[in-house]
Write a structure and sequence with these properties.
This is histidine kinase. It is built from 16 helices and 23 strands. With 681 residues, the chain is of the alpha+beta class. It folds into 3 domains: 12-332, Beta-Lactamase (2-Layer Sandwich); 336-432, Beta-Lactamase, CATH 3.30.450.20; 528-677, 2-Layer Sandwich (Heat Shock Protein 90). Strands 1, 2, 3, 4, 5 and 6 form a 6-stranded antiparallel sheet that branches.
C-alpha cells in the first residue's frame, strides 16, 4: 500500500501559473465538449437507425403474417371441390368473412374469365389483361402469391389491392387463378401501429416495382404513386440485401429523413418492401437540445473557472486554514467512524465502533484494521484503501464482514483521503454502516430474479415449441387430410366424408388454439413500449376493425367522449377494446337490436372502464371461468372461437396494473368492467 502522496500541484503555483492552468483547462473543456457533441450527433443517428430497423423488422413480420392469412384462405378456396358452384360460392363467402377488409373472392379460368365469385355479378368478366392475372400466371415455381399495385375497381373506381394465386390443372399446367380484393385498410391499421406518430414520420408498403400499396399517414395522397426512382426505395435496391437504413431525401414529400427498409424474403410470398421513416429534424431534436444545454453549461463553467481563478489567489490562505479546521469533524457520529494511517494503523475510532467490538476507544487505537475485518474480505478492503490514496477521486467504498459483539455483521464503508496544509495525504477517514439486513435482502432478491429469469426462459422455450414443433405436425396433418379428401372422396360414403371433415376441422381448431396460446403468451412481452395512449382512439380503432360484424349485426356501438389517456401499450389497449366489443357483437340476443356502450369513471387511484351490452348475458357460475384460458360457456356449434379472448383481456389489464370482472344478468346483458391506474381525462 502507498505510504503517502506529495503535495498538490496547486501548492507551488504562482498566480501566473494558476491562470495558465485555468486557461488550459478552459480550452480542454471546449475541445472535449466539441468531441462529445460530434459523438452525440453520430450516436443519435445510429440509435434512431437501429430503432427504425427494429420497427421495420416487426412491420415486415406483421405484413408477412397478414399475407400468410390471405394465402391460407386462397389455398383453401383453391383446394375446395368445384362440382357444386353454389356450395363453392358459399364456401368462398364464409372464408372471406375471416378478413373484414376482403371485398370479394373469385376464381378465373385459364383464359382469364371469372367463373365463380362471391359477387355473382362479376362472373363472366374478362380479366386476361389485368395485372393480377398476368403476373400470377408468370410467377416462378417457388412463389405462389402475387400482390398487385392499388387498382381502381367498380363504378366509383375505388382503389383495392388484388392478391392472386395461380391454379394448376391435373397435368400440372396453368389452370387459372384464385384471387381476392383487399381494401387499403387491410394494411392501414398495421402501418398506423408502427411509426412514432410525430409530424413527418410515416410507414409505407411498396411493391417490388415501387408502387405504393399503402402509407400512413395521409394514404390518400400517396397510394398508387411510384417511387422506384428516388428516396429510400431506390437506395435500398442499389444497396442490395433485404434490410438497410439510410439518411436521405424522400421521394414522397421531399423531406430529409432517416429510414429503415426491409424486403420480404419468404420464398412463397411476393418481395414487398416495408419502409419506416422519421424526419431528421425530429431525430436530431434531442441532440440539438442537448447541444444547447451543453453550450450553456460549458459557457457557465468557463465563466465560473475564470471567476474562481480570480478568487483563488485572495482566498488561498483562508482555504488552507479551512481544511485544517474541518479535519476532526464527524468524530461523534452514530455510524462507525475510524481514521487510519497509510500503513494500516488506526489512529482514531469513535464510540460506536469501539462499543460494537466490546472495546474502549483507547484499546482499538494502534491496532491494524485487519484485526477487525473477516479474513476473506481483507484483500478487497486493502484494494479500497489503495484506491482512496490514488487519483483522481481519492475516495473508495467497500463492503466487508466484521466480527462484533452481536456476531458476524456486514458493514458498508466509504473512505476518503485527508491532507495536511501542504497537500500531503496523512490519513484516511472512513465511515461505516451496518447493512447486514440489506445484504440478506439483496441475496434473496438476487435468487428471486434468477428464478424469474429461469421462468422467463422456460416460457420463451414454450413459445418456440408452440410456434414450431406443435404447428409443424398440424400442417402435415392438414396437408395429408387435404390429399386424402381430393383423392379418395369419391370412394368414401357419407360417414367417411363426415369423419374426414371432422378431422380437418379438429386440425384447424388445434392450429388456432396454438396461435391463440402464442398470442396469450406474448402479451406484455413482444408489443409496443409504454407511452401515452388515448382510450378513445383505441376504442375507435377497435370499432373500425369490427366494422363488418357490427354492420352485419345491425347493432350500434357508443363510445363516451370523455375516455381518458393512460400510460400503457397502445396495441394492447386496442386489442383489449376489440376483444370486449367483439364479444358483445358475437353474443348478442337474437331478435333484439344490439347496443354496446363504452364509458369511464374516475376512481381514487385511476379509472374504471365499462363495456356494456344488451346481449344474452352470463350465468353467475361463469363469472370467473370465462377469464380462464380456453374456457367456453357455449358449444362451438352455437358460437365460434377457442375461449382465449377474455383470458387475453385479463392478462392485458393485469399487465397494466389493473383488474377486470363482469357483471351480468342472463337474458338482459353484461357489463365488463376493468380498472387502469393513473391517467388523465
Amino acid at each position: 500500500m502507498p505510504s503517502g502522496h506529495k503535495s498538490s500541484p496547486l501548492a507551488g503555483l504562482r498566480p501566473r501559473g494558476i491562470w495558465g492552468l485555468s486557461v488550459s483547462l478552459t480550452l480542454l473543456l471546449i475541445i472535449l465538449t466539441g468531441i462529445q457533441l460530434q459523438t452525440g450527433y453520430r450516436r443519435t443517428i445510429q440509435t434512431a437507425s437501429a430503432n427504425l430497423a427494429d420497427t421495420a423488422r416487426v412491420t415486415e413480420e406483421q405484413v408477412r403474417g397478414s399475407l400468410r392469412v390471405v394465402r391460407l384462405m386462397l389455398r383453401a378456396i383453391a383446394e375446395a371441390p368445384r362440382d357444386d358452384t353454389n356450395a363453392l360460392r358459399r364456401f368462398m363467402a364464409t372464408r372471406t368473412r375471416i378478413v373484414p377488409e376482403i371485398r370479394q373472392a373469385f376464381i378465373v379460368n385459364a383464359d382469364g374469365i371469372v367463373t365463380i365469385a362471391t359477387l355473382p355479378q362479376v362472373e363472366g368478366r374478362d380479366t386476361s389483361e389485368r395485372s393480377f392475372f398476368r403476373n400470377a400466371r408468370e410467377l416462378p415455381p417457388a412463389r405462389d402469391l402475387f400482390v398487385s399495385e392499388p387498382l381502381p375497381i367498380g363504378q366509383n373506381n375505388s382503389l383495392v389491392i388484388m392478391v392472386s394465386m395461380p391454379l394448376s390443372g391435373p397435368d400440372g399446367q396453368f389452370d387459372g387463378i384464385v384471387a381476392v380484393s383487399l381494401e387499403l385498410g387491410y394494411f392501414q391499421t398495421l402501418l398506423q401501429s408502427v411509426h412514432s406518430g410525430e409530424e413527418g414520420a410515416g410507414a409505407l408498403l411498396v411493391t417490388p416495382e415501387g408502387d405504393i400499396i399503402d402509407r400512413d399517414p395521409e394514404p390518400e395522397l400517396y397510394v398508387g404513386k411510384n417511387i422506384a426512382k428516388g428516396g429510400a426505395f431506390s437506395m435500398h435496391r442499389k444497396a442490395g440485401g433485404t434490410a438497410n437504413t439510410f439518411v436521405h431525401v424522400t421521394a414522397t414529400d421531399g423531406k430529409e429523413k432517416v429510414s429503415a427498409v426491409r424486403s420480404l424474403s419468404e420464398p412463397a410470398l411476393p418481395p414487398l418492401v416495408v419502409i419506416v421513416g422519421r424526419p431528421l429534424d425530429g431525430v436530431l431534436a434531442p441532440w440539438r437540445a442537448e447541444a444547447l444545454t451543453m453550450a450553456a453549461v460549458v459557457g457557465t463553467l468557463v465563466i465560473a473557472i475564470l471567476g474562481l481563478t480570480a478568487l483563488l489567489n485572495r482566498h488561498l490562505v483562508a482555504l488552507r486554514a479551512s481544511e485544517e479546521r474541518y479535519r476532526g469533524l464527524i468524530e461523534t457520529q452514530n455510524d462507525l467512524v475510524v481514521r487510519l494511517t497509510p500503513d494500516d494503523r488506526l489512529v482514531f475510532v469513535n464510540e460506536a465502533f469501539a462499543r460494537s467490538h466490546g472495546l474502549d476507544a483507547a484499546q482499538a487505537v494502534g491496532r491494524s484494521w485487519r484485526t477487525f475485518v473477516h479474513e476473506e474480505d481483507q484483500p478487497a478492503t486493502a484494494q479500497a484503501l489503495a484506491t482512496a490514496l490514488s487519483p483522481p477521486a481519492f475516495r473508495a467504498t467497500v463492503e466487508c464482514r466484521m466480527t462484533m459483539t452481536c456476531g458476524l455483521r456486514w458493514v458498508s464503508w466509504e473512505g476518503a483521503a485527508i491532507r495536511d496544509m501542504s497537500g500531503n495525504i496523512v490519513e484516511i477517514q472512513a465511515a461505516g454502516r451496518d447493512i447486514t439486513e440489506w445484504v440478506e435482502h439483496r441475496d434473496r432478491q438476487a435468487e428471486l430474479l434468477r428464478n424469474l429469469d429461469k421462468s422467463n426462459r422456460e416460457l420463451e422455450q414454450f413459445a418456440y415449441v408452440a410456434s414450431h414443433d406443435l404447428r409443424e405436425p398440424l400442417r402435415m396433418i392438414s396437408s395429408y387430410l387435404g390429399l386424402l379428401g381430393r383423392r379418395y372422396t369419391a370412394l368414401l360414403d357419407e360417414d367417411g366424408r363426415q369423419f374426414m371433415e371432422f378431422a380437418r376441422d379438429g386440425a384447424k381448431r388445434m392450429d388456432q388454439m396454438v396461435l391463440d396460446l402464442l398470442e396469450f403468451s406474448r402479451v406484455g412481452r413482444l408489443r409496443d413500449g409504454l407511452g401515452t395512449v388515448s382510450l378513445g382512439e383505441a376504442a375507435s380503432i377497435a370499432i373500425l376493425n369490427l366494422a363488418l360484424p357490427i354492420k352485419e349485426s345491425g347493432g350500434t356501438v357508443t363510445v363516451a367522449p370523455d375516455l381518458p389517456e393512460i400510460t400503457g401499450a397502445r396495441g394492447e389497449m386496442i386489442r383489449l377494446m376489440q376483444n370486449l366489443i367483439g364479444n358483445a357483437v358475437k353474443y348478442r340476443q337474437p331478435g333484439r337490436p344490439l347496443t354496446v356502450t363504452v364509458s369511464a369513471e374516475r376512481n381514487h387511484d385511476g379509472w374504471t372502464l365499462t363495456v356494456a351490452d344488451n346481449g344474452i348475458g352470463i350465468p353467475p357460475d361463469g363469472f370467473e371461468r370465462i377469464f380462464d384460458i380456453f374456457q367456453r360457456l357455449h358449444s362451438r356449434a352455437d358460437y365460434e372461437g377457442t375461449g382465449i379472448g377474455l383470458a387475453v383481456c385479463r392478462k392485458i389489464v393485469e399487465h397494466h396494473g389493473g383488474r377486470i370482472w363482469v357483471e351480468s344478468v342472463p337474458g338482459e346483458g353484461s357489463r365488463f368492467r376493468f380498472t387502469l391506474p393513473g391517467g388523465q381525462a
